[in-house]
Automatic annotation (TrEMBL):
Keyword tags: Carboxypeptidase, Cell shape, Cell wall biogenesis/degradation, Hydrolase, Peptidoglycan synthesis, Protease, Signal
Highest classification ranks of the organism: Bacteria, Bacillati, Bacillota, Clostridia, Lachnospirales
UniProt family annotation: Belongs to the peptidase S11 family.
Species of provenance: Anaerosacchariphilus hominis
Domain Peptidase S11 D-alanyl-D-alanine carboxypeptidase A N-terminal: 35-262
Stated role: Removes C-terminal D-alanyl residues from sugar-peptide cell wall precursors.
Superkingdom of source: Bacteria
Annotated catalysed reactions: Preferential cleavage: (Ac)2-L-Lys-D-Ala-|-D-Ala. Also transpeptidation of peptidyl-alanyl moieties that are N-acyl substituents of D-alanine
Name of the featured protein: serine-type D-Ala-D-Ala carboxypeptidase
Tagged with keyword Lyase: no
GO BP annotations, alphabetical order: cell wall organization; peptidoglycan biosynthetic process; proteolysis; regulation of cell shape
Active site: 66 (acyl-ester intermediate), 69 (proton acceptor), 121
Listed pathway(s): Cell wall biogenesis; peptidoglycan biosynthesis
Length: 403
């Protein structure tokens, strides 16, 4: 009975914990003002928790252009070695628009091509990287889509590693502002290669050449946001005729990590719209959201135990056990607006059947924001209670009437 109860509670608490970290379950915080934005879709996200702080059409599916390349970069860092030698294919060399102008048959360090792709958004470098890491472009796209699902981006579909407008049998190359922000959050806070990601995307300029020393290049960072606001961390621009101007960027100030994602943020000649929207959203986050400690000491009852042996040995006495949290965080902080309040719910089993061991799961304490679970603590038994058994009863009778 005890094992069944513990198993059921473990499943319940696992699901609650899953909901806590699942990005798809986070709702936009209520905004106290409506921002005028150029972007048709936009998101401001708390980079630490993934909670959306402000949203405009956050779930509408749209082309993402070269903001795609943040996913290409993180996959190359996680699955490749910067010192790998990449042989350029004819297909990679044929990529249009923004190019490094690499040639079929040339060899480059993978790490050098990563700078080319991210600083100047070279489409040919992106394809060479994808073919090296994934074998083929479709093979790499499969890796991109698998990673997107892993991090909770269920409205995103990748076809190319560079973001050029494309379509395959499963759909159009596209994402949502919410998903794009989630990808950036993964890249800068969750990936085991996040430091390398930040180093590359924050570099102002970088020089390299092919492995034979026949050609040399210097690439400069086109992410102007890096010099627009204090604490700017990273970002990637994008543009195609279908996508319009796009941008995803991150900033860190006073313990706050903010991410902005913009899709369809104007078309030529409105190149600067993405910068004004980004600053407006970042400033909104800095002005309206601060960290507050929401920890509350829970009042945990003593729980009655059926079929338990009292300390006195008198079966007429009720047996109760003390409860405890499996872990405590007296500095539990969340990024909140002035009007937002966290609700705390305690869910405890009505009773439990002996035997009970210390650490047996018996409930949970949940913190909710906007009706969504944002933190779960498990509640467990703080002591053990032995069960009344036939053997215990016989021993009791023996000691009372025979000895």
């Amino acid at each position: 009975m005890k094992k069944l109860l513990a198993f059921s509670l473990a499943i319940f608490l696992f699901l609650q914990l899953f909901l806590t970290v699942s990005p798809t379950e986070v709702l936009a915080a209520p905004a106290d003002e409506v921002l005028t934005l150029h972007a048709q879709s936009a998101v401001l996200m708390d980079g630490d928790t993934g909670r959306i702080l402000y949203a405009k059409n956050a779930g509408e599916v749209r082309p993402m252009a070269s903001t795609t390349k943040i996913m290409t970069l993180i996959l190359a860092l996680e699955n490749g070695n910067p010192d790998d030698l990449v042989t350029v294919s004819a297909y990679a060399a044929s990529m249009p628009d923004v190019q490094l102008h690499i040639r079929a048959g040339e060899k480059y360090r993978l790490g050098d091509l990563l700078y080319s792709m991210m600083l100047e958004s070279h489409n040919d470098a992106a394809v060479a990287i994808a073919e090296h890491v994934g074998g083929t472009v479709p093979g790499f796209a499969a890796l991109m889509n698998a990673k997107a699902r892993d991090i909770g981006c269920y409205s995103t579909h990748y076809v190319t590693p560079n973001g050029l407008d494309a379509e395959d049998g499963n759909g159009v190359h596209s994402t949502t502002a919410a998903d794009l922000a989630r990808v950036m959050r993964y890249c800068i806070t969750l990936s085991p290669r996040r430091e390398e990601f930040l180093k590359i995307t924050r570099t102002d300029s970088y020089s390299f050449g092919d492995t034979e020393g026949l050609r040399s290049f210097t690439v400069g960072n086109k992410n102007a946001f890096l010099h627009m606001m204090e604490g700017a961390l990273s970002g990637k621009t994008g543009f195609t005729g279908n996508a319009g101007y796009c941008y995803v960027g991150a900033l860190r100030q006073e313990e706050r990590t903010l991410i902005v994602a913009l899709l369809a943020c104007g078309w030529p000649n409105n190149r600067s719209y993405k910068w004004s929207d980004t600053r407006k959203l970042m400033n909104y986050g800095l002005e309206h959201f601060t960290y507050r400690n929401v920890w509350q000491e829970p009042k945990l009852p003593e729980l009655p135990v059926k079929n338990g042996i009292p300390d006195s040995g008198n079966l007429e006495e009720e047996v109760r056990i003390r409860l405890r949290l499996s872990s405590e965080e007296p500095d539990l902080k969340f990024l909140l607006s002035e009007d937002e309040q966290v609700q705390v719910e305690t869910h405890i089993s009505q009773e439990v059947t002996a035997p009970v061991e210390p650490g047996t799961l018996l409930g949970s304490v949940r913190y909710l924001l906007d009706g969504q679970v944002v933190k779960v603590y498990t509640v467990e038994a703080a002591e053990d209670v032995e069960a009344v058994t036939l053997g215990w009863c016989l021993e009791k009778l023996w000691r009372k009437y025979i000895l």
